Every structure is written in C-alpha cells, then in structure tokens.
Amino acid sequence: MEEMNLKNYAYIGDAVWELKIRSNTIRMTNNARNLHKLTTEKVKASYQADCLHKIESILSDDEMNISRRGRNLPIPIGRRQIQTEYRLATAFETLIGWWYLHNPERLEEIYKILEV
C-alpha cells in the first residue's frame, strides 16, 4: 500500500475516532442533547491528547515516529490558542488513521486499552 500524506491519516483518523465514540454513545441514551454531550467530551482535543499520553508507553518505534510527525503538522490559525493540545490530538488522530488503514488489529487493541 502506498504511503499517504500524514494530513490524510489525521483526517480519516478523526472520522474513525468520532464514529467509534458515536457507536458507543448511542447505546447509552436516546436523548439527543445527552448524545451530543457524551460524544463531544471524547472527541475534543483535550481528551484525545490525554488518550495519546495513556498509550505513549506502549507505542512501537514506528508508531512513535508517526505520532511525532503528526504532532508536527501545521496547525490552523484558529487553534493556536490551544496549540499543544491540538498538536497532541492531531498526533493521536494520525495514529488512529494509520492503524485503521494498515493495522486494524492494533487499533482494536488500542480501543481496549483506552476503554472505548
């Protein structure tokens, strides 16, 4: 499989993560407001940054490299006020996207570790 641009891994990783979270939250409530609250709590940058911190110690060298490169992607101007958090969240999304496309078994392992 041809290597894709890291921004594309982050892009698909964002969608995969949100779908995973939404798939879980629909089992928790039928209330639209509660669904939105439960979902946004786990798709925001601060939560994703925390997730990355939780799994950093078990990442392989290749995964650490993907994370580092994802963290260094350019940041949209509007997100500069939370630059560190946003960079970590982007690194996390980049990993999710990479696992989704290249190693779905590892992605499932990560989901279990993160209890999502």
Structure description:
The chain has 116 residues and is mostly helical. The chain is built from 6 helices and no strands. The protein has helices spanning 6-25, 32-43, 45-55, 61-71, 83-102, 104-114. The longest helix is centred in the N-terminal third of the chain and has 20 residues, at 6-25.
Question: What descriptive keywords fit this protein?
Answer:
116 residues; mainly alpha; 73% helix; globular
Strand content: under 5%
Uncertain runs: none
Coarse morphology:
globular
Distance, first to last CA: 28 Å
Helix count equals 6
How would you sum up this structure in a few lines?
With about 120 residues, the protein is mostly helical. About 75% of the residues lie in helices and about 0% in strands.
Question: How are the secondary structure elements laid out?
Answer:
Layout (H helix, E strand, L loop, with lengths): L5 H20 L6 H12 L1 H11 L5 H11 L11 H20 L1 H11 L2
Helix pairs in contact: 1-2, 1-5, 3-5, 4-5, 5-6
